Recover the amino acids of this structure.
């Protein structure tokens, strides 16, 4: 993993407002564990969980590999180690679901990923995916976002499947090779016309948001003014009724006579 200053040989990275136009930004990037380890970070995007291959911004990743280890860490995290033969392994992480006192809700699993369960049997963690037991050596397809723990890349799990057979595994590797060849092998190029179109759309959206904000402010102001007028009207009516009541009362009726007791 590296965070470094850009060199003159690096393709320029467009501003973040243009990332939506990138072929990789909202895509499940089909990578290997070694690819994930080789992704760059950039000082301008540090702390944002944004990584780069060439000038492609990468956030979502799909991996395929053999399940080589299952571990429950600190009683809170489930770690699955995948070995995809790329020369690097990667930990796939999710969090165990915590139940607070009085929480009687029914959950689909005991982790934050609905189809993933883990239980301890004979002092060993036993993994289940889609209610089926999964053994070490099974081929796993996992999707998630990249995270870093102690300078080591991890995949924060969002979706996971067991690859059913060799044909499905081969298909997944073909998809990975095709993605790297067709998308990641060359820099992302954004034309000036595309930038202008995106800037115009952002400006239009900004103007719409400003108009909505102004309308909301005006609506709230009118509501408060109506509320104030109603309060003042009710208060004037109350005072008139009080004056009429006092004017029609008998002299001295406003005071309470002393209580007479037998001596």
């Amino acid at each position: 993993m590296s965070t470094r200053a850009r060199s003159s040989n690096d393709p320029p990275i467009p501003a973040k407002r243009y990332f939506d136009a990138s072929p990789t930004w909202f895509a499940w990037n089909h990578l290997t564990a070694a690819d994930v380890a080789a992704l760059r970070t950039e000082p301008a995007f540090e702390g944002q969980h944004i990584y780069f291959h060439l000038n492609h911004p990468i956030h979502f990743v799909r991996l395929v590999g053999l399940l080589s280890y299952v571990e429950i860490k600190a009683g809170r995290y489930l770690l699955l180690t995948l070995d995809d033969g790329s020369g690097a392994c990667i930990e796939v992480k999710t969090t165990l679901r915590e139940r607070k006192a009085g929480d009687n809700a029914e959950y689909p699993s005991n982790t934050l990923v609905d189809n993933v369960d883990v239980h301890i049997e004979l002092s060993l963690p036993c993994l289940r995916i889609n209610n089926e037991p999964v053994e070490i050596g099974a081929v796993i397809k996992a999707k998630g976002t990249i995270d870093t723990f102690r300078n080591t890349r991890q995949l924060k799990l969002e979706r996971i499947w067991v690859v059913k057979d060799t044909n499905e595994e081969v298909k997944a590797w073909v998809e990975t090779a095709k993605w790297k060849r067709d998308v990641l092998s060359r820099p992302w190029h954004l034309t000036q016309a595309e930038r202008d179109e995106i800037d115009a759309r952002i400006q239009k959206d900004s103007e719409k948001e400003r108009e909505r904000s102004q309308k909301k402010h005006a609506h709230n102001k009118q509501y408060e003014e109506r509320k104030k007028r109603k309060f003042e009207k009710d208060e004037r009516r109350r005072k008139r009724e009080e004056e009429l009541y006092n004017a029609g009362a008998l002299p001295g009726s406003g005071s309470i006579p002393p209580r007479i007791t037998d001596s």
Summary: Confidence is low (pLDDT under 50) at residues 1-5. The longest strand covers residues 60-73. Residues 149 and 215 are 46 Å apart (CA to CA). Residues 191-246 form one domain.
